[in-house]
Amino acid sequence: MNLLQNMMLIIGFLLIISGAYCLIRTYHMLKIIIGMEIAMKAVTMFIILAGYISGNMDLAQAFVITVIVIEVVVAVVAAGIAVNLYKKYGSMDIRNLRKLKG
Amino acid sequence: MEAVLYICLGLMFISGVMAVMFRSMIKSAIALAAASAALGVIMYELGGIWAALFEVSVCSGLVTVIFVSAISLSNMDKEELGKVFEDKKRMALLPYILIAAGAVLLAIVLAVGPLLPAVGQVVKPIGDLREILWNNRQADIWGQVIVLVTGAVAVVVLFRERDEI
Question: Which of B19, B25, B165 sits opposite A84 (nearest CB)?
């Protein structure tokens, strides 16, 4: 079982790298949200893994529920901004955000 | 039991990387939902039943619906996406980076030994989930309520139909 935990650790780090790479390399607003979501999935997995190892799964679940609520609200707000960006500029390129004033 | 965990872990990794690498946004959203579902199964297998329920219903369901509605509200097709963002070129390096990082992490695990302690070695459980949520982490509940209200207001403001933005 210890091999599985180490595998989870490695895969979690690789998913965080994927999400961070996506955040750095793309200009598409929705793609950026997806990259952020992927990194947060890895963090959620780490919290559950910590709860499993320590035997405090209930506390870990309380944290995970909080993380999920925040994740969803962030996704909704970012998607709303992306849609408004598209309506204004005809593209979801985040470089257009620099043109906004006021 | 362990085989299910390994399969879901692999599925989550592949779907996660595919969600980042796909050029089509719909495919990305579906891959993200698959990663969430796999994470839900992992949580269930490790004993986090309530967290798994939230993960599958909210992250795999609601977030996918939000993405699909945002994609349908903006009609950028694949050609336009490729032209504007050049995602294929930009993401070409990712597999090599992941292979290199995976090899480094695997080498660290093999050289140093297991990075994590054995199960149940650290502390004792402190109570039931309901007890923790309502007594120990009550501030979190209020924080969640505030965040949800903020999200609801943001949805009303951001998705409002306007003649001119």
Answer: B165
